[in-house]
Amino acid sequence: MPMEYVIGIDGGGTKSLLHMMDCDGNFIVELDGGPLNLNATGKEAVQAELKELLFRAADRSGMPLANCRALCIGAAGAARSDERAIIEGMLRELGLRGIIEVTNDAENALAAGCEGREGVVVIAGTGSLAFGRDRDGRVCRAGGWGHLIGDEGSGYAIASRAVAAAMRSFDGREPPTELLPRLMEAIGIESPEQFISFVYRQAGKQHIAALARIVNEAYLAGDQKAAHILTEAADELALMAQTVLGKLRFDVRPIPLVCSGGVFSRIDVVYERFVQQVSAGGFPIEAVKPTRNAAYGAAKIALLSSRGAVS
Does the reported pTM lie above 0.85? Predict the structure, then answer.
């Protein structure tokens, strides 16, 4: 009997990643691809990219697409019913006969961290959100409303609050802070007035979010304002996690709490206070920093689906 396998795809707005494993969970191949965002690139471009990525995986592994028992593809917003139908149709046209699951990026991150589908993930990168799935397959999310009205605790939120604090310090509305000279040096400006051009004309969300590391450096140097900003970030992320944990019912004990994203991996004080605050809410959690990528998580979901498992 021909060997069967599963595929997981993490589809981003700028690139994608495919992970293929056999039905025992053993690695076969992992490949990079182009963007798979329907809203950003359009249906024809996504279809062409999927075709190229899947055909390349079949060629590299030496196994036809017809042997794929299950495929899970995830991306931000892709789990909406209309987009899910479009993507499923594309995959069927390419010759996929097995199970197809279209998920969101948070669900893949959860599976990458806990090796299953039951638990909670909090993502704190450029943006932020919390997502959970319980024993009955019910899902819940909190946050993730974008940098203008949400994304509390994210790299962007931390950095934007730091820039605001630096300007208040420059005005004399707040005491001096290490954030002002450190941010100026990191950006490469000579006067505080140049923050205006950087923030409003030059920098995108990712450029601003990258400055969160400067806030951490100022905190480690003893800056009180930086400490306040990072404490606030941890508490906001903990509130997201507690909100999701409180709305779902879990069989697993302790409940996996996957802490994903650069804020958790690079700013220890945020991670440590976050875990402390969630635990203080009375939730029996086990915090995990994922060591696998979201494409692996998608492949794990595909593997569980191929076995008829919910979690």
Answer: yes
